[in-house]
Amino acid sequence: MSVVIAIDAGTTGVRAFALREDGTAAGFAYTEFTQHFPRPGWVEHDALEIWGAVQRTLAELAGRLTEPIAAVGITDQRETVVAWDRRTGQPLHRAIVWQDRRTAARCDALREEGLEPLVRRTTGLVLDPYFSATKLEWLLTEGGVTAGPDLALGTIDSWILWNLTGGPAGGVHATEPSNASRTMLLDIRTLAWSDELVHRFGVPPTALPEVRPSSGRFGVTAAGVGLPAGIPVSGMAGDQQAALFGQACLEPGMTKNTYGTGSFVLMHVGDTCPEPVEGLLTTVAWTLADGTRAYALEGAIFVTGAAVQWLRDGLGIIERAEDVAALAATVADTEGCFVVPAFTGLGSPWWDPYARGTIVGITRGTGRGHLARAVLEAISLQTRDVVSAMSEASGHPIAALKADGGAAANDLLLQLQADHLQVPVSRPVIQETTALGAAYLAGLAEGVWASPADITANWQLDATFSPIAPREATDALHAAWSRAVERSRGWATDR
Q1: Domain boundaries in the chain?
Q2: Residue 5 and residue 208: Cα distance in Å, rounded?
Q3: CA-based nearest residue to 388, from 425, 429, 420
Q4: How far apart are CA 441 and CA 452, in angstroms?
Q5: Which pLDDT score, from 0 to 100, does residue 61 have?
Q6: Is there a smaller number of Cβ atoms within 10 Å at the N or the C end of the chain?
Q7: Predicted confidence (pLDDT) per residue in 238-249, tens digit
Q8: Which residues, at least 6 apart from 443, have a Cβ–Cβ distance to it below 8 Å?
Q9: What pLDDT, in 10s, does the model give residues 454-463?
Q10: Quick one: angle between helices 156-164 and 47-64, nearest 10?
Q11: 425-463 b/e with 16+ CB inside 10 Å = b?
Q12: What CATH fold (topology level) applies to the domain 3-247?
């Protein structure tokens, strides 16, 4: 039995994951990398450190495998951008991370100039520093990066693919539509770079990667990358779209939420691109080698798991992230305390980069348990806001939610989520569904799996959480939460 390896290059580390043909895990390796915060609101990564982490995790995993490797897939943190020299292989600036807010004022100016309708209509996105275009513009105007024949620009998937397939010695410079649709430069209907937007942001077209199907052979591994040479690299997708695929959400209306540093709710809406929806993003979910395509509505919640890390590292009220559930369970409710974790602004459905974190409703009796529970409530309430907007816009009221990501191991969180949505929430056996989706995309291209139906057959349920709280109680809690959100909005004055 062969295996497919997925490279999952996330925001804080790189995971290499091996998947057998029967859908069971064959092993994984993980390496963290450094987070750089050069100024308030700025977040950067060292692209060479990321590539080194990829090589180390691949070598560690491959060293433990006994099965032959049929293919490699790549999934990544999407909007983060890298500029590098194709001749030397050297990055020209640190990677600017999706969380980075340095271009918030630029987005405001472009909105005032009337650019947002074009952005919404062409890309399905909103003018926000979250996306790649203004980051690339900043690199070219203020970051010291200059245009030229050797300049390469791309998201993390392109950087890894280029290095994996040879780097300066013939590496493939390509991406695929799910990642490209997050740059604010792709026409999501034609699946080609928008000449108008590329020109408006001053991005040299020759520096951009070629857009190819998400499932299909991009190239083969070069020597010295941590894997044997000659293995097909045959699948790529942005992390959230890969998770949608890995969760077998293959029919319109099927919805998943990945609980990570942030949380990302995606709903499959079919093979026709929908019109823009207020407060939500329209994104390409994936494209297959046979021309099949899928679109999704997305709600991006910037801070969820990061709020648990804040309880641990910022306040010191828990020692480990997994301790939050036990601490939250020491109280029956928050006693009216709400935490709005808008540490880097608010994403869907608000899109307010000037919102900031807020704690309201504190009394003398508020303790550690109430704060812990308020953070878990905030995660589930933010998700409720997104799902409500999504269901109304799509005409597909969700019947169930599939949950994955690190925080999906938290039973209390998933119970709160089921209560707030008033629908069942299901957790799969393999919760690393981001890597799972990348592996499936690669394996489909190489015939490891015959069709997407095999993915559905492989999906295995771990647990389901059904609503137990009455709707009246959760509606009252949500109304109070909405008041707390309003108090967090527009707080920052650095415009």
Answers
A1: 3-247
A2: 26
A3: 420
A4: 9
A5: 96
A6: C
A7: 999 999 999 999
A8: 4, 19, 21, 70, 71, 73, 234, 235, 449
A9: 989 888 899 9
A10: 60
A11: bbbbebbbbbbbbbbbbbbbbbebbeebebbeebbeeee
A12: Nucleotidyltransferase; domain 5 (3.30.420)
Amino acid identity, position 133: A
The whole-angstrom separation of Cα 134 and Cα 348 is 19
CA distance 348 to 341: 13
Distance CA(236)–CA(287), nearest Å, equals 10
**What is the Cα–Cα distance from 402 to 430, expressed in whole angstroms?**
12
**Distance of alpha carbon 172 from alpha carbon 158, whole angstroms:** 8
Number of helices (H), then strands (E), in the chain: 15, 23
Host H or E run for residue 136 = helix 133-141
CA–CA separation, 495 vs 141, rounded Å? 19
pTM for the complete prediction? Answer: 0.89
User: What span, in angstroms and rounded, lies between the C-alpha atoms of 265 and 70?
Assistant: 31
Q: Count Cβ neighbours within 10 Å for each residue of 340-352 and write b for 16 or more, e otherwise.
A: bbbbbbbbbbbbb
Q: What is the arithmetic mean of pLDDT over 268-292? A: 90
123-158, pLDDT tens digit by residue? 999 998 989 999 999 999 999 999 999 999 999 999
pLDDT, tens digit (0-9, with 9 covering 90-100), for 163-203: 999 999 999 999 999 999 999 999 999 999 999 999 999 99
Residue 407 has pLDDT above 90, yes or no: no
Of the candidates 439, 442, 441, 412, the one whose C-alpha atom is nearest the C-alpha of residue 427 is: 412
3-state secondary structure of 344: coil
Gyration radius from the chain CA atoms: 21
296, 182 contact by CB (below 8 A): no
Strands ordered across the beta sheet of 281-287: 281-287, 293-301, 263-270, 255-259, 401-404, 425-428, 461-465
Q: Which residues pair with 346 in a beta bridge?
A: 352
Structure confidence by residue, pLDDT tens digits, 322-374: 899 999 999 999 999 999 999 988 988 888 888 999 999 999 999 999 999 99
Number of Cβ atoms within 10 Å of the Cβ of 87: 12
At residue 14 the predicted structure's pLDDT band, cuts being 50, 70 and 90, is very high
Checking 462-466 for CB contacts under 8 A at 24+ apart, the result is 462/427, 462/428, 462/429, 462/431, 463/411, 463/414, 463/426, 463/427, 464/424, 464/425, 464/426, 464/427, 465/411, 465/414, 465/415, 465/417, 465/418, 465/424, 465/425, 465/426, 465/427, 466/418, 466/424
Q: What is the pLDDT of residue 494?
A: 66
What is the C-alpha to C-alpha distance for residues 492 and 347, in angstroms, rounded to an integer? 15
